[in-house]
Specification:
- This protein folds into two domains: 89 residues; 228 residues, Bira Bifunctional Protein, Domain 2 (BirA Bifunctional Protein, domain 2).
- 41% of the residues lie in helices and 19% in strands.
- It has twelve helices and nine strands.
- 30% of the residues are buried.
C-alpha cells in the first residue's frame, strides 16, 4: 500500500508539472481526486490493509492528498498568471465595455462537512462503505431488531415502493450488509442519502443525509465508543470540546445514548447558540444489540461492537452556524458563495 501510494504521488506530481494549460490541469485534478480518481480507488482498498495498520495508512493518504491539492493550487495560480500575460499581449481591450465576471462553482457546505468527517475517520483506520438507497424492508427494519409491529417504524415513516421495498430511512442497512459478509473485524462509516416522510421546515426534510459508523471486534466496550466519539468531536469542533452521554433507547443498540458536545461558541458557559445550556445535541449511539449480531451470523458471546449515527446536515448547520436547513437546498448563490 505504501509503495502504491508513493507511485501515485510521484505520477500525479509529474502530471501537474507537465500541465500546459488549465484544462489539462483540471483533467489531472479529476484523475487524482475525483470519484474514480487514483486516490479514491486507493481508499476503497483500505479493507485489504491489516486493521492495526489502517490509522497509519489513512494518515499517509491524507498527507499525500494535501500535498497534491497544494501542488494543484500552486500550478493553477502559475497557469492563470501565464494566461493573463498572454491575453494582455495579444488582446486589445475596449475600456468602454463593462467588465465580464465569470461565476466559478465550488463545493457545497454538505460536501465540505462530509469530506471533513471522512478525513477524521479514515485517519482512525475506518473504511468508507456505501450501499443502495432503495432498500429491502428486511435490511432497513427487521435486521435492525425493528419487526413489523414495532413503534419505531412510526418514528421512521418512510416511502414504500411495495410491501418489501422502501427508500431507506437510515444508512444502517449498509452496516447489516457488511456484517453479513462475515469479514471481521469491522471498522466502517456509511455516509449517504436517506428518506423519511417528514414535512419541510427549518430542521426537517423528506430527503437528507446521514453518516453512520460501526465497529465489530473482540472485547469492544462502551469505553471504546466514548473514546472514539470524544476524539471525533475534538477533531471536528476543536481541541477543548467535551462530550456528554445521556441514556436513550434505540432498537438496534443496548445500552444506547444520545451524545452532546460542549458549545464551541461559548465554551460551555451558555449562549443563544446552545440555548443557554452550554451543550449541543449531535448524535445517537450505543453498543450493537446481541439480536442484531445473531441475525448477521456473528456470535455475541465472542464479538461485540458499537454503532453511532449523525445527520450530515446537522454537522453543516452547527459548523457554519446556519439556523435553517432549507438554505442548504434552495441553491441561492448569495448564500452558497459564502463557503
Amino acid at each position: 500500500m505504501k509503495e502504491k501510494l508513493a507511485k501515485i504521488r510521484e505520477e500525479i506530481l509529474k502530471q501537474i508539472d507537465a500541465s500546459e494549460n488549465l484544462d489539462k490541469l483540471n483533467e489531472v485534478r479529476v484523475s487524482a481526486l475525483g470519484k474514480k480518481g487514483a486516490l479514491t480507488e486507493l481508499l476503497k482498498s483500505m479493507k485489504e490493509v491489516a486493521p492495526q495498520d489502517r490509522p497509519k495508512v489513512g494518515q499517509m493518504v491524507n498527507e499525500v492528498r494535501a500535498e497534491i491539492e497544494t501542488a494543484l493550487e500552486t500550478e493553477k495560480a502559475k497557469l492563470e498568471d501565464r494566461a493573463m500575460e498572454a491575453r494582455l499581449k495579444n488582446e486589445v481591450i475596449d475600456v468602454t465595455l463593462p467588465a465580464k465576471k465569470n461565476s466559478v462553482g465550488h463545493r457545497h457546505p454538505n460536501t465540505i462537512a462530509l469530506e471533513e468527517v471522512e478525513r477524521i475517520f479514515v485517519g482512525m483506520g475506518y473504511e468508507v462503505v456505501r450501499g443502495p438507497e432503495v432498500e429491502k424492508d428486511y435490511y432497513n427494519f427487521e435486521a435492525l431488531n425493528i419487526p413489523k409491529d414495532h413503534p419505531a417504524r412510526d418514528e421512521q415513516d418512510t416511502f414504500y415502493i411495495n410491501e418489501e421495498i422502501v427508500l431507506r430511512t437510515q444508512t444502517s442497512p449498509v452496516q447489516v450488509r457488511t456484517m453479513e459478509q462475515g469479514k471481521l473485524p469491522i471498522r466502517m462509516i456509511a455516509p449517504g442519502r436517506v428518506f423519511r416522510s417528514d414535512e419541510v421546515d427549518a430542521t426537517h426534510s423528506p430527503s437528507f443525509h446521514q453518516i453512520e459508523g460501526l465497529v465489530i471486534d473482540k472485547n469492544i466496550t462502551f469505553a471504546d465508543l466514548k473514546g472514539t466519539l470524544a476524539e471525533f468531536a475534538k477533531e471536528l469542533f476543536g481541541e477543548d470540546t467535551k462530550v456528554k452521554f445521556r441514556p436513550h433507547h434505540f432498537p438496534f443498540t443496548e445500552p444506547s445514548a444520545e451524545v452532546d458536545v460542549s458549545c464551541f461558541k461559548c465554551g460551555g458557559k451558555g449562549c443563544r447558540f446552545c440555548k443557554g445550556s452550554g451543550w449541543i445535541e449531535i448524535l445517537g449511539c450505543g453498543m450493537v444489540h446481541p439480536k442484531v449480531l445473531k441475525m448477521c451470523n456473528i456470535d455475541p458471546e465472542e464479538y461485540s461492537g458499537f454503532a453511532f449515527g449523525v445527520g450530515l446536515e446537522r454537522i453543516a448547520l452547527l459548523k457554519y452556524e446556519i439556523d435553517d436547513m432549507r438554505l442548504l437546498y434552495e441553491n441561492d448563490i448569495r448564500f452558497l458563495k459564502q463557503f
